[in-house]
Amino acid sequence: MDAAAVDAAITSRRSVRRFLDTPVPAGAVEAMLDAAARAPSGTNMQPWRGYALAGAARDALCRAVQAAFDTEAHTHEQEVRYYPEAFFEPYLARRRKVGWDLYGLLGIGKGEVAKTRAQHRRNFQFFDAPVGMIFTIDRRLAVGSWLDYGMFLENIMVAARGRGLDTCAQAAWAQYHRVIRPVLGLAEEEIVVCGLALGYADPAAVENTLTTTREPARAFMRFDGFDE
To answer: To bridge 36 with a disulfide, which of 110, 151, 155, 227 should be the other Cys (CB 3.0-4.6 Å)?
Structure first.
């Protein structure tokens, strides 16, 4: 196995926020999902379930959620909280930096509510990606299955990079679960985990030049018992 190729697929993954309209064949999407499903899960439960949408199906979901966003965004909440009620360090500083960096590239200044809202609304057109996915989990499962789910989603994003495709994982979709539910015909036990945009990054889009930082391993991990 080529470690460099694997590392390149991992380290080149980024959250793309503007895509080309180049189609992605269903077979390519299915192959990525088959590969991603090799993610480990407790007792091999495989807690993931999802909906891959393109064309008219994708557009119908986008229209429904954008309509809700435009008229009643304040009434929608996630079923399961993704972020803490109050941010604290070092997480607050990291959150602020990525926001400032992205909005700086887009020319959105502090307090420009209309521009900020317009950018957030782009989540609900999958940032123009030709393929949008919605992932769900059975509400009867426990926190371990949510951890397993993260490994599955990362596998999708790395598999996409291996094929020259890009992604953006989107927690924002979970807020609109009540709108999504009838459009996709979700079962009552399904909780919306997130959305995911898939396609080819627009190389001319300034927002796609954003490079986020990561802490080195020595900053978050203690190493004991190794020969230096």
So the answer is: 155
Q: Please state whether the predicted TM-score (pTM) of the whole model is above 0.85.
A: yes
Q: Which residues of 108-136 are buried (b: 16+ CB within 10 A; e: fewer)?
A: beeeeeeebeebeebbbbbbbbbbbbbbb
**Sign of the dihedral defined by the CA atoms of residues 39, 32, 174, 47, in that order:** negative
pLDDT digits (tens, 9 = 90+) for 124-174: 999 999 999 999 999 999 999 999 999 999 999 999 999 999 999 999 999
Q: Model confidence over 31-68: pLDDT tens digits?
A: 999 999 999 999 999 999 999 999 999 999 999 999 99
**Distance from C-alpha of 124 to C-alpha of 63, rounded to nearest angstrom:** 8
Give me 131's structure tokens: 């393929």
Tell me the C-alpha distance between 98 and 212, whole Å: 7
Distance between CA 160 and CA 206 in Å, rounded?
A: 21
By CB atoms closer than 10 A (0-12, 13-18, 19+), residue 103 is: middle
Amino acid at 78: Q
Residues forming a β-bridge with 214: none
